[in-house]
TrEMBL record:
It comes from the Bacteria. It is an enzyme of class 4 (lyase). Keywords: Cobalamin biosynthesis, Lyase, Pyridoxal phosphate. Its EC number is 4.1.1.81. This is threonine-phosphate decarboxylase. Decarboxylates L-threonine-O-3-phosphate to yield (R)-1-amino-2-propanol O-2-phosphate, the precursor for the linkage between the nucleotide loop and the corrin ring in cobalamin. InterPro entries: Aminotransferase_I/II_large (IPR004839), CobD (IPR005860), NHTrfase_class1_PyrdxlP-BS (IPR004838), PyrdxlP-dep_Trfase (IPR015424), PyrdxlP-dep_Trfase_major (IPR015421), PyrdxlP-dep_Trfase_small (IPR015422). One of its GO terms (molecular function) is pyridoxal phosphate binding. The keyword Lyase applies. Residues 60-321 form the Aminotransferase class I/classII large domain. PROSITE patterns: AA_TRANSFER_CLASS_1. Its cofactor is pyridoxal 5'-phosphate. One of its GO terms (biological process) is cobalamin biosynthetic process.
Length: 352
């Protein structure tokens, strides 16, 4: 029987309907900056109507194209990274799992539901915020002796911490030596490819997750990829089952992965836009960190900033475990101007 406590929803960005009801502003009048999704995503080509009428072809070339794109030996297509997260506990041996205190919220519940003890960690920049139960994940220190697995989001969402491939593989080797696994979520790495370890995912003890939703802006397609060694690939392939990625989604993602010219242009554009957003926010906040797809502002006034911007029809994501606000990228010049004006107005309200 389902334990209803396990059905509790983890809060996420993109919940614009909730904001519209709460503030009484029509949905179409909002600027949604609550996710880190590219607001100018891949222009999906026309899709053959037949793709809607037949079962998805799991044996097409999508996975081979993805493996080549990521520089990996193999790739498993899944219905978004979320589907892979739910499968991870079934393919890993029981043991303590390290999950960031400030990171993507689905990992800890997935492992806890499966009976894995979960230890939370912070990176050195947030060491002042940890409670007694959290450990500091520091490349200069060994991992806790009783830790079996580690989940690393690189670059981290929302705190923007980033880890070099050398640091990542140091932890991987340390865990593999004790029969454990490093799970690296690279959902936001497409615009920061120098951080990726996808080309090393054939190793035992390493699982890499990639997303189509962020850089490509195709969040609605619900497609992600698992890059792993043959043993893990076989196990997750069995758990995934058939037809998990729809035919139309396969067409869209295939086109996006093959469009190298669009990817190069978009990577450059996002780097510039990410810096522009950070520069704008720095006028109002002393502590701004950013990736090409989002900025993170840490501060005790997070609730007031979210509420103040919402009253101007701008929705951002607030975090409470370490107080702060994540800002996604505005889609156009009008949205940039509205954000600038709203920030100025809210700052005056807070300081008055």
């Amino acid at each position: 029987m389902l334990d209803l406590a396990d059905a509790t929803q983890v809060p996420h960005g993109g919940n614009l309907g909730e904001a519209a009801k709460r503030y009484g502003i029509p949905r179409e009048d909002w600027i949604d900056l609550s996710t880190g999704i590219n607001p100018r995503g891949y222009p999906v080509p026309a899709i053959d109507p037949a793709a809607w009428l037949r079962l998805p072809d799991d044996n097409d070339d999508l996975e081979e194209i993805a493996a080549e794109h990521y520089g990996a030996t193999r790739a498993l297509a899944v219905a978004g990274t979320q589907a892979a997260i739910r499968m991870l506990p079934a393919v890993l041996p029981q043991g303590r799992v390290g999950v960031g205190l400030l990171t993507y919220g689905e990992y800890a519940p997935a492992f806890e539901r499966a009976g894995f003890p979960v230890d939370r960690f912070v990176t050195p920049q947030f060491a002042d915020c940890r409670d007694a139960a959290a450990f500091v994940l520091d490349p200069a220190r060994a991992l806790p002796a009783d830790l079996k697995h580690l989940v690393l989001v690189n670059p981290n969402n929302p705190g923007t911490e980033r880890f070099t491939p050398q640091q990542v593989m140091q932890w991987c080797e340390e865990l593999a030596a004790r029969g454990g696994t490093l799970v690296v979520d690279e959902a936001f790495v497409e615009s920061m490819p120098e951080l990726s370890v996808a080309n090393l995912a054939d190793r035992e003890g390493l699982i890499v997750l990639r997303s189509i939703g962020k850089f490509f802006g195709l969040a609605g397609a619900r497609v992600g990829f698992v890059l792993a060694c043959p043993r893990i690939d076989r196990a997750m392939r069995h758990l995934r089952g058939p037809w998990s990625v729809s035919g139309p989604a396969r067409v869209a993602v295939r086109a996006a992965l093959l469009d190298h010219e669009w990817q190069a242009r978009t990577r450059a554009t996002l780097v510039a836009s990410g810096s522009r957003l950070a520069d704008l926010l720095a006028q109002f906040h002393p502590t701004v960190r950013h990736t090409p797809l989002f900025s993170w502002v840490r501060g005790q006034q997070a609730r007031r900033w979210q509420d103040g911007l919402a009253r101007h029809g701008i929705w951002v994501r607030r975090f409470d475990v370490i107080p702060g606000v994540r800002f996604g990228l505005p889609a156009d010049d009008a949205a940039w101007s509205r954000l600038d004006a709203a920030l100025r107005a809210v700052k005056m309200e807070i300081e008055s």
